[in-house]
Design goal:
Layout (H helix, E strand, L loop, with lengths): L1 E5 L4 H12 L3 E6 L14 E4 L17 E4 L6 H6 L1 H22 L3 E7 L22 H20 L2 E7 L1 E3 L2 E3 L2 E3 L9 H9 L6 E4 L11 E6 H14 L5 E6 L4 E3 H12 L5 E4 L8 E2 L4 H7 L8 H14 L10
Parallel strand pairs: 1-2, 1-4, 2-3, 4-5, 5-6, 6-12, 7-11, 10-14, 11-15
Antiparallel strand pairs: 8-9, 11-13
Helix pairs in contact: 1-6, 3-4, 5-7, 5-9, 7-9
Length: about 325
């Protein structure tokens, strides 16, 4: 298939791009490199530097695309509460412009990078796809708006749409000569921050809140390896059904508290991780754990690297090795 990957220079999008190419697909990557990294781009992919709102320049009616996989989004929940206008413009308005281009070009399939943040503080655990959606931050709200738009597009325009609601993605994609892992500026995710502390790049790790109603007072999250997540996108692409919007949660079904994660980082790296408890961040749910039963049953998906030690170990290997340098220029 000929596929467009938006955000294909980012952490998840670049791994999915490589797996699509390995599976024999032709891939065009659209990324403005605002948060992505040029060196993470697969050299076999055609690269177009543009914003997601400019997708119409690529998705022309005669271009012959068979599908779009959409990863281009701002992802920091805390920032979304301070600068909501950035998130509504990029994540929602940009996605609607992309859907306009998809419709005009008659692209039949669409796989969307959604998030567990749409559920907010869940009323049941593990969280099924039928759970009520009540996001507690702007980031989750912008993603939910796109999910809702996809339902309408599928019904009205026969689009074959799939939303994959991620829980916490971790780990790295490591192959001979290729290393892709988490790199955000500023870094906001717990595992890479903890690894920076282990490597002496930070003095200490801040845990936001220790008074949540959880096993040790810190937030509990479900983690999924980036390779397992990427494989689910290829399965979703094949399972997409015209006129239907399918939604799948992707996680391991096991929750780890922030303090438990820090202990695993200490074990894997062999370094002490000094911890400082900071006030809660606005919009952080106490516990998010996925039920991925639907993905397992309908997509035939199972995690190959389900343990936190697998994820932290690969992330630490990436941190020590450094990113792949195939395109030469970083962003």
């Amino acid at each position: 298939m000929k596929l467009l990957v938006t955000g294909g220079a980012g952490y998840i999008g670049s791994v999915v791009t490589r797996m699509l190419i390995d599976a024999g697909h032709q891939v065009v990557v659209l990324d403005d490199l605002r948060t992505g990294h040029a060196e993470a781009l697969a050299p076999e992919a055609t690269f177009v530097r543009a914003a997601v709102s400019e997708a119409a320049q690529v998705l022309t009616p005669d271009a012959g695309f068979d599908g779009v996989l959409h990863f281009a989004a701002l992802i920091q929940a805390g920032e979304s509460m301070i600068k909501p206008e950035l998130y509504w413009t990029n994540n929602t308005v940009g996605s609607l412009a992309l859907l306009d281009a998809v419709r005009a070009a008659r692209v039949p399939r669409f796989v969307f990078s959604s998030t567990a943040a749409v559920y907010g503080n869940p009323t049941e655990l593990p969280i099924p796809e039928t759970a009520a959606t009540a996001p507690t931050n702007t980031y989750g709200a912008t993603k939910l708006a796109v999910d809702m738009a996809l339902t309408s597009e599928a019904i009205a325009h026969d689009l074959a749409a799939v939303s994959l609601r991620y829980f916490n993605v971790a780990g790295a994609y490591l192959r001979p000569g290729i290393a892709i892992g988490e790199r955000h500026d500023p870094e906001s995710h717990l595992i890479p921050i903890a690894l920076q502390v282990a490597a002496g790049q930070r003095e200490k790790l801040q845990l936001f809140g220790d008074d949540y109603p959880t096993v040790d007072g810190t937030c509990v999250r479900d983690y999924i390896h980036v390779e397992d997540l990427a494989r689910a996108h290829l399965l979703a692409l094949e399972a997409a059904t015209p006129g239907r919007h399918r939604i799948y949660n992707l996680g391991n079904g096991n929750g780890f508290s922030n303090r438990q994660l820090v202990e695993v980082v200490r074990e894997v790296t062999g370094h002490p991780i000094p911890v400082e408890v900071a006030p809660r961040r606005e919009g952080d749910p106490a516990e998010l754990v996925a039920s991925s039963a639907r993905a397992r049953e309908e997509l035939g998906w199972t995690p190959a690297k389900p343990t936190l030690r697998d994820m932290v170990g690969d992330a630490w290997a990436f941190y020590q090795q450094g990113p792949t340098q195939q395109r030469g220029a970083g962003a």
